[in-house]
Structure formats: C-alpha cells, structure tokens
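Weekly structure sync - notes
Attendees: PM, LS, DV (DV joined late)
Agenda: review two folding runs queued last week.

Item 1: First target. Sequence and structure tokens pasted below for the record.
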Amino acid sequence: DIRQENIYYSWYDKEIKTSLQEFITSWSGVVLLAEPDENSIEPNYKNNYKKELYLRFQQYSLVIGIVVVMMLAYVSNQLFYNLGITCSLLINMLGIYIGYLLVLKQLHIQSNYADKICSLFKKSDCNNILESKAANFFGIIGWSELGLGYFISNTLLLLFFPHLITYMAMINICTLPYTIWSVWYQKMKAVQWCPLCLIVQVILWNIFIINLIVGVIYFPVFSFPDMLWVGCLYFIPFLVINLFIPELAKGNRIEQITQEINSLKTNENVFKTFLKQQTHYEVDKTTSKILFGDPDSDILVTILTNPHCNPCAWMHTRAEKLLEDINQSICIQYIFSSFNKELESGAHFMIAAYFTYPPKKVKTIYKEWFEGGKNNPKEFFQRYLHVQTEEGKKEYLRHEEWKERVQLRTTPTVLVNGYQLPDNYKIEDLRYFTDLNVNIK
C-alpha cells in the first residue's frame, strides 16, 4: 500500500513500514500483487482441508496423550510434594522445546519461533553456528540431537524414576564443561551468537543450580540395576532421535526436490521443449467433433480413448476434473476406438449420445458410463435413447480414418496440439499451460 510518503508491505510474514525513498533504494524491482476474484480458491480445497484437520487431530491427540501420561506419572509418584523435582521437571521440558527448535533449524525446516529467537542479537545467526564443523560431536552426531535426547531422558527419569535423580545430577555436572566451550567457540571462533544454543547453556546451569539447592549432588550408592536403568534412559531416546532425524531430513529434502522439479516443469519454455521432442500427429478440431471445454481455445487436448478400457475410464475422470479446475478454459477432444468389432457398440453409443443430448446431459452420460455403465452395456443402452444418425456414422468413420492414418493403437493416448504428452508430464499438469502459444511446431 502507498500512503502519502510511506510504503507498507509484507516481507516474510512481517508487516513493514518504510519511506518511499528507502523503499526505492532497497527494492529489487520485483513485487507480488495477489488479488482475489470470484474464482479464487485453493486447488482441491475440501480434500486439503480434510487432510489438514486429520493431521491436526493426530498432532493434538499425540500431545494430549503425552501430557496425560506425564500428569499421571507426576501425580502417582506424588512429585508435587517435591519443589526441587517440579522445578527441574519444568526446566527440562523447556530444554526439550529448545532442543526441538534447534533440530528444526538443523534440518532447515521453517519455524517462526526459532527464527524470532535466533534474531534476538545483532550479531546472531543460528544457521551459521549449526552448519559449522563444531556443531557435530566427533563430526557425526549433531549437538542439537544430543541436547534434545538429553532433556527427554532427564524428563523421563524425573517422572518415572525420581529415586535416580542423583545419577541425573552427576551427568549434568559432566555437561557443564561443554557450556563453557560452546560460549567460547561462538565468541572467539565463530564471532557470532546462536541464541538457541545460549539458552541451552543457561538451562544446563539452571539444572545444576536446582540440583545444588535441593541437595542431590553426591555420589550415589552404585548398583547394577540402577545403572542399567539410567543407561537405557539416556541411550534409547538419543538412539530413537538419531535414527529418526535422517529420515526426517530425507523427507524434507525430497519435498524440496519435488518443489524444484515442479517449478521447472511448470516453466512454459521447458514444457514446449519436451513437447517438441515428442511424436507429432496431424489432428485438429475437425478430426473429431466430440469436444468439451472451450472450443475456441488455442489448446487442443486430444484423447484417444476406448469406451471399454479401465485406464481410459480413469483418464476421463482426470480430464473432467482438469476442466473443472481450470474453469473449462481449454478444449478436450475425444477420439473413440474399440480395436474390437464386438465392442464397437460402445463407441457408437458415445458418439450418438453426444449428438443427441444437450452438453450437460452428455457429461452425465459419459460419467455414468465410465464409472460403471461400461460393465453392463446392454442395460446401460436401454436407459438412454440410442439412435444411429447419419451424423453419428460419419463421425465414427472420421475417428476410424484418423486412426488408420496415424497408426495409433495405445489407449488412452493424450496429445497436446498434436504432440504426444511427454512421459514426465500428467494431464493434470496442463492446468499450468492454459495460455500456451498454439504455434509450437
């Protein structure tokens, strides 16, 4: 928005106000202006909304379940009588959250809270610290993974094995030298601060102070069962996280690669290049008069289809959905082929129906046919007027002559302005090319 001498704009979820001169100086020259119209809606909104609700249900159920288990352990072990354990429990839960944010940063997963914390200082960049060689223990295990596992282990020990708190206190003392090294490295080597890392160091010292005040810092009476329990408590959470992180990173990377590939695929010049490399067949809107969508569109999508073919039925559903999504803005042409004298009645019926009924009724008939009517054609034919007109016969002959001329046999085959649709594209991808220049030969 432009008001008098000020410019208002959004940048990475931040609303920014600046003077006109400052804006001109810093502006790259590129701006995105998005304005809604009567057709503006997220693609597949209803399905996406259902998936989002289910995902939220899963997440909330998991969080509620964890909280309930923690509350049951807290109450059943009567930990509320021990202020020291309660304080230690709270500080370790904060450590879990900070460790979680650090792992997100390490995996380059967007988190607004992590970004806000990491921008607390003028000379702060969590990414630079987390991507340095010092961010890994022995160059293999990330400190963020170790920290998250450590705080989870502390929390489990406090909730379910509070009598082992002395072991936790001794382990905590072993972590304190790391805090000194971490601060020294950020100040002297990296010359940058990682606020999230600093919060972890503060949490570790707070745990030490609480343990000191409560009086649990002393050498315990070591016993093999207790040591085995402590070993499992500190090893298993870390092992689970260490095994899970690579899979999460892999999934995140696959998502990024998919986005990059989709960005490349939706480039019109890239699509044209692939399209020109495909076999070209002479076809136009006179080849078949079975047309859906916009008959005046420069984009002609020809589908060679068999009325009795299951993949062709699925292709019809996809083509119908494509037209619905793009507001009928391209032209889809059907050429029918049965490749079997006994099944020619299906092609004759589809052509006759197109010339007999109004467009809306034709769409209904085609949909019902492909959804199940083709499995019992005689019964389906009896439901609708099936008249072989002279126009219908000529149309069928045009389809047959074209097939003989181009020698296409595979159904369904999709052509775009005569070019076979490249293997690395689906018919749904044509939504991105509704304004494609027809002159692509």
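Item 2: Second target, run right after the first with the same settings.
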Amino acid sequence: MSNKNVHILDPFTGTGTFIARILQSNLIEKNKLEYKYKNELHANEIVLLAYYIAGINIESTYQDIMKPNSYEKFNGAVLTDTFHLYEQDRDLIANLLPDNSSKRSNQKNKKITIILGNPPYSVGQGSVNDDAANIRYPNLEQKIRDTYAKLSKSTNVMPLYDSYIKAFRWASDRLEENGVIAYVTNAGWVDSNSADGFRKSLKNEFDKIYVLHLRGNQRTSGEKSRKEGGKIFGSGSRAPISIVFLVKNKN
C-alpha cells in the first residue's frame, strides 16, 4: 500500500472511516504518507452531509499524524454515485460543481489497485410507493446478466441485483488486470442458491479468494440463532456478515 502508483479507493466511503483507519494503521509508511494522501487515496460518497463529514474526518486524521505547517485539504474525495461513474461521461451536477466534476474525471483516469469498504445493501423497493426506489444502471446490470445471472442455475436471480452484489461487479471490472477488493458485506451470498452464479464468477475472475465468515444471522431462532453468535454490529445488524478479499494477479 506504500508503493507508488498503488491507488486506493473507497467507493462508498460514508463518513470516511476506512480511509482514516488506513492513515492510522501504519500500513502506509510515514515517509510516503504525504504523497499517498495527496495523490493516491480516493473516496466517493453520494450523500452530501456524509461527504463533508468524510472530508473532515480524513483531513483531521492526517493533520494529527503528520502535523503539517498548514492545513492540508484532502482532494481525493468526490461527491458522486459510484455506480453511475461509467454509465455516462458527465455527472448531473457537473455544471454546478466544476471542481468536483474535475476530480471525478481525474479518478476515472487512474488505474485503481485496491478497492475497499462497506458497500450499500438494498435489494429493491419495499413497496410501489417507496420513494427510495432503486436507481437503474443499465451497463452495470447488463454485465450482471452476462456473468452472475448467466452462470446461475437458480430460477430467482433477483438477489443478484442487490446493491452489494452490484458493488462486487463494479469493483471487479474497475480493477482491470491486477489488484485487490476488500469488502465488508452481507454474507448471504456464501451459501444461498440464488448466488451460485456469483460464486462461480468469483472463481473464474480472481486468482485468490479469502472469506472471513463472521456469521451473525439473526433472521433465525432458537439453537440455530445461538450458533450464529449474536448480532455482529450490535443492534445495527441482523444479517450474517463476511469480510472478503478478492485478488487479481495476472502473473
């Protein structure tokens, strides 16, 4: 992670926790941290408030570690819908936020090596009246049809269009030849029938796969629930959780 030309992206950064922890972790050598911070760390967020909080969190973490003479702004944060980045060349707010649009274009031109984070989780509308209807991403969804759905023997492929599965598809394509995806996600894909094509695709597309299955499925009861070990993130989760490392290495 310290090496030059290793670009690190959190495509769903929320309040910037993952990037801030990278800065604190010593995974990047301190004498290379300034260059990495200014050039090779990237974070996307679609929610405006979270985007501003992420910037503050990442910047304040950097100031605490490096103690520069003047405040060093983090220019790697982009206000954008990551899934929409490759659906069209310009975003909807390009004219309103030209600086943000420039950062967006700059990130698209970088060869990303590491994609990490906690993708969103949403499989569909709760009802037809749901204001938070899923946004359509024709190119991304077509790629899912051509890979995960095509390889599936299940009659129900709807779960393959869940946001966190889309995050795997998007990241797999974004890495190109070499790199690592490191995600914290719902673990339903590990053993569900509907994800058989997804699992086959991971096997086809990656050279190494590591899965830490933390269990935590609280949509069960009795002895089975006890075996799952309780909620992984306290009251914030009922789903099983996995930490996944996918490695592409053309050599």
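Discussion on item 2: The radius of gyration is 19 Å.
Action: LS to circulate a short write-up before next sync.
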